[in-house]
Specification:
It is a single chain. The protein is an alpha/beta fold and 209 residues long. The protein has helices at residues 20-30, 44-61, 71-76, 91-98, 110-119, 143-153, 169-174, 184-187, 192-208, and strands at residues 6-9, 34-37, 64-68, 81-84, 102-107, 123-126, 158-160, 180-182.
């Protein structure tokens, strides 16, 4: 988990007419380290089917696979981990269910970040950094100031997320982020692999500075 840099989340609404597996495989070819299945509107049988297909894809390529929210689906398909929001199953209870699988927690304030670290999260999400259409339940961006605060105070890996584009990612990296998550900028791109490589080029540049 400590070595990942580019984290992609599914967002089928951003690539109408293109198959989920095709899109995510292009992201893998572009260099993403982690793929998360996030589906807030589908029914569970459909989400389970997608999870099985993505588990097969990620195993084929040796990529970490995370399921958002659904612990039961993550366990059924043997995903590498789960990602939970602040309103989901408490981390301590989730750990009892998933054992040593990866657990990521979304955070929007330093108190949440520090608590997640204390309770044993493997990584945290930090965001939304900028306004985003992919997270309707969190309206106010946390801004790059929260990224800077987490970089200074939190020791476990964190990934910056929310409205991150190639045009603004430098602001996030300048604030101390070394791991980036993007949704629409990747899966909605006409050149998914190229967009991923461009993000990695930015990460490389800041890593050398």
């Amino acid at each position: 988990m400590k070595d990942f840099r580019l984290y992609a989340i599914t967002g089928e609404e951003f690539h109408p007419g293109r198959e989920l597996i095709e899109v995510m495989e292009e992201a893998i070819y572009g260099g993403v380290d982690i793929i998360q299945l996030r589906d807030k509107s589908g029914d569970k049988p459909a989400i389970l089917e997608k999870a099985r297909a993505l588990r097969e894809l990620t195993r084929k390529h040796g990529i970490t696979f995370i399921v958002n929210d659904y612990i039961d689906i993550a366990l059924e398909v043997d995903a590498d981990g789960i990602h939970l929001g602040q309103g989901d199953v408490p981390l301590v209870e989730a750990r009892k269910l998933v054992g040593d699988k990866i657990i990521g927690i979304s955070t929007h304030a330093i108190e949440e970040a520090l608590l997640a670290e204390e309770q044993g999260a493997d990584y945290i999400g930090v965001g939304p950094v900028f306004p985003t259409k992919t997270k309707v339940d969190v309206v106010d961006p946390v801004t790059v100031e929260y990224v800077r605060e987490v970089a200074a105070k939190v020791k476990i890996p964190f990934v910056a997320i929310g409205g991150i584009k190639l045009r603004n990612v430098d602001e996030v990296l300048a604030a101390g982020a070394t791991r980036i998550c993007a949704v629409s900028e990747i899966v909605g791109s006409s050149d998914i692999s190229g967009t991923c490589r461009s993000f990695l080029d930015k990460l490389d540049k800041w890593g050398e500075s």
